[in-house]
Design goal:
By secondary structure, the protein is mainly beta. It has one helix at about 5-20, and strands at about 30, 30-35, 40, 45-50, 55-60, 65-70, 80, 80-90, 90-95, 95-100, 115-120, 120-130, 135-140.
Length: about 150
Amino acid sequence: MRIVCPLLFLGLLVSPVLTGCGDGRPRRVPVSGRVLIDGEPLSHGTIMLVPHDARPSTAPLDAQGRFTMNCFDEGDGAVLGTHRVGVSAVKPLSGSSQQWLAPKRYVDYNDSGLEVEITGPTDDLKIELTWDGGRPFVETFQYEGY
């Protein structure tokens, strides 16, 4: 009995270190907030937070521009650290057209110029976009070669 108890105690100490959050995945914290464009809620689209060395988090935007990040599971947030940000706001109109509700430059997180630091749980992350004098537009395209 004396041998088993110390081994059990040692196992309890080592187990959380090996499993991190208990699910074998990187530690995540709840992250939610809003996306604004020129001060107004972006009412349609998706946001992506991309850390340099971990799994990205994504979330759809609601009609008020609010989001709750998802990394592995719904609502589990984002990993801690610096994240590049991508926002895609495209609404399909037909098989050959779509409306851009935010500039295309925000889609690619590598070129968006947006970055956030996640240091702990937050429910008020604000991502601010701008048209820089532009406005929503409709893009038409043609399919070739089918």
